Amino acid sequence: MTELHEVQITEEKPLLLPPSQPVPGKKHSVETPYGLVTFTVHGTPKPKRPAILTYHDVGLNHQSCFEPLFHFEDMQEIVKNFVVVHVDAPGMEEGAPLFPLGYQYPSLDQLADMIPCILQYLNAGWDWGLVSPLFLSPLPHQLSHPDTVEGLVLINIDPNAKGWMDWAAHKLSGLTSSIPEMILAHLFSQEELSGCRELIQQYREALVGAPNLSNIQLYWSSYNTRRDLNFERGGDVTLKCPVMLVVGDQAPHEDAVVECNSKLDPTQTSFLKIPGGQPQLTQPGKLTEAFKYFVQGMGYMASSCMTRLSRSRTASLSSAASGDGSQSRSRTLSQNSESGSPQQPPPAPGSGAHTMEVSC
Fold this sequence. Notes:
By secondary structure, the chain is α/β, with parallel strands linked by helices.
């Protein structure tokens, strides 16, 4: 009779991760009812903490829209406390293949409906719960899926459909301007465009030379045929989670954001106005500080230290107090300060009225 011996087998290579488990820093793709959507994960899930999910504006991808903000020094304190998921709209990711002629690009509602497919993929791999806040979303995702969003930070959002006058102006503009120039006019103010700043030139060259320009044009067309979200304070259509509305004081959509603010619940909404057209590109420090106060108001990072901007502000206030007394201190903290100094941080969601202007 043959004697059996135990043989120990040692793996020469580590076992591969399950196909559904997200790999930090790697680009992932998920099939949805409306096509393939790509996203990149940075960091790993933190217990009892949501994720930060970003969605870029038209004419950009997650890198060109958010790199200045998420690479900013003080932002690293926030990033280490959350897992970050950067979503690219279909066909907008780097190296994206061109859509075939006649391809029907998803509507904004359909783009929003792709988000649950991403969450399902992430939950299958990590079982990490809800993903929020949904940062910079031109999509009505929270209206369709309110239980999956814990908070929203919306930058230069326009919740209104194009009216007849807007439609006519868009058509006329299409006869005299190229797609890249129309998108630049959507992203930046006329003052910034005419100033020929290095930043504007950089984005102009990126759009003009984009290998996926035909894809960008499809996204642009989808954006311009968006529906009206019909927000109404106290009505059935509203945002029920904490919201921070951010607008550049020179942004083309400043009036739309102000109107949006007037239609949302003031006890759940913070409104911040920051210099420039694209705050995440030109004012990452100020936006980082505002975002930090926002997540602290949601109950996270309560013991976090001040940012450099906060420390600078505190030092300035101390100096003003010692030099000019209470009169100078009152002038520095004025809501209508004409000197352009930073205002107090937005109050925490749920603590009363949050609408305020931050002129930094």
